[in-house]
Amino acid sequence: MKHFVAVAVLYLLFFLPLHAQQEVVESKVEGEEFAHWHLKDLNNDGHFGISSEKTYTELLKGRTSQTVIVAVIDSGTDIEHEDLQANIWVNEDEIPGNGIDDDKNGYIDDVHGWSFLGNTDGENINQENMEVTRVYTKYKKEFAGLSRSAVSTERRETFDMWQRCKAEMEAERKAAEDELTQLGEFAQVLSAVHFIIARELGTEEYTIDDIKGIKSQDEAVAASRDLMIQLHEDDFKPEDIVEWQEDVDRRLKYAYNPDYNVRAMIVGDDPDDMNERDYGCPDVRGPRADHGTHVSGIVGAIHDNDLGMEGVARDVKIMPLRAVPHGDELDKDVANAIRYAVENGAQIINMSFGKGISPNKEAVDAAVKFAEEKGVLLVHGAGNDAENVDKVENFPNPNYLAGGKASNWLEVGAIQQERGAEMMATFTNYGKTNVDLYAPGVDIFSLKPDDTYKNNSGTSMASPVVAGAAALIWSYFPELSASELKELLMSTATRERIRVAVPGTANKNGKFKKKCFKKLSASGGIVNVYAAVQEALKRN
């Protein structure tokens, strides 16, 4: 009995908060009351959206627009989705399925984009290492067993990086092993709880009301009842434990497993050759298209078709580029995806991914510089770690290793729909210098593969809201440069002059530190399409 109670308390104090944190980027909330709130207007609709619907109705009605191409670098996109298919970019110079590089751009049959995570035999990378694992594996033979003093001066910086990655990888593996053990124990508790409840009620089939009606002085029955009520209140179902165990198991088998090298088996390129570009395949969906499909829908789901939702921008084409596996993306793939997008006509690139280390950042910098020179706007989600990214590194970013900062880059944090002190998403990264502005990123309704829909939360959702806003404006004001468009969005952002709870600062009593919202980003505000278009009309 003592063991049972101890594990039940362990759930209440540890597992539940952890579970809630994991769910933060995959909201389960559904329903009309949340659908499309990110498109709404605060004054008209009571939701802190970007006012894009109001903009189309009041400011842009009757005006002509031109199509803007938005590249979505992500996990994969269902290009046949009923609410997206007509808005997928088509490479008109490529003949589908003939096995020939018709347009001579270096990619065969790239009719709708490209995947840097597959091969022409139909094999695709799904699970990948985290970057710390790749760095550990790469330098293990060179540095294992050595002290810093035994390493040559010119190699010490690399040695230090390797040591940091080794420590993080080992810590993550240990944490995952411990978590898996605890989950196994908790699964046993849930089984025991079900047995106790079923015996008390005299049936294997029961409802939460049946459980709440239990009146018993027996310690095991009372503890079982209380735990099941707590589970119900926190929307935690017993079957969720299986999915949770699978997630932890994936971290051990793939993310933090130095012996796992799927890249060599499937793609077959040299990950360290930053000049290599002719690898991959035209399969832009891949095995895990949930994230990319959701992101793409936020930018450009079809308007006025009486289906699930509408993208922020009407006159838009989505160019899917698959470069983000379940794990950390390679710098090489990110750089090549940016270059592909620029060379094939994308005007905006959305990047809803990130990591804490970038061993080949110079290659990404070169691609970002190329995009900057060609006038392409890059929009990136700030990340979901509730960190100050002025103090903690987050990649990719616009800060060049050689000095200077890209003028064509927008870094986006997330807010939720309610105005006030709790308006910042609890997970969002922030930073007065390195985050430019905020956008809706909680309970965002969009597409999922196979003609279905769902709500998701994360800066992964806030970023395409801004990418869609930029596409909306650019389609009507094509004379703007990328840097001018960035400046327009930042200068017209809604500035809330209030103190807000700062993500990640809660004390043991659950109270957050508060700070002026305007000090948590460079613009101090939230993207406002209506204000941006008003200003563009004045300047035009």
Describe it for me?
The chain contains 15 helices and 11 strands. With 540 residues, it is an alpha/beta fold. The chain has 2 domains: 2-16 and 133-252, no CATH class; 31-129 and 261-539, Rossmann fold (3-Layer(aba) Sandwich). The strands form 3 sheets. A 7-stranded parallel sheet has the order 2-3-1-4-5-6-7, with helices on both faces. The chain has a two-stranded antiparallel ribbon with strand order 8-9. The protein starts with a helix and ends with a helix. Residues 9-33 have low confidence and may be disordered. Strand 4, helix 12 and strand 5 form a beta-alpha-beta unit. It is globular, with a radius of gyration of 25 Å.
Number of helices: 15
Identify the CATH homologous superfamily of the largest domain: Peptidase S8/S53 domain
CATH topology of the largest domain: Rossmann fold
Terminal CA distance reads: 74 Å
Beta-strand fraction estimate:
5-15%
- Main beta-sheet strand count, sense and barrel state: 7 strands, parallel
The helicity comes to 25-40%
The total beta strand count reads: 11
What structural class is derived from the secondary structure elements?
alpha/beta
The succession of helices and strands, N to C, reads HHHEEHHHHHHHEHEHEEEEEHHEEH
State the shape: globular
Q: Please, what is the average pLDDT? A: 92
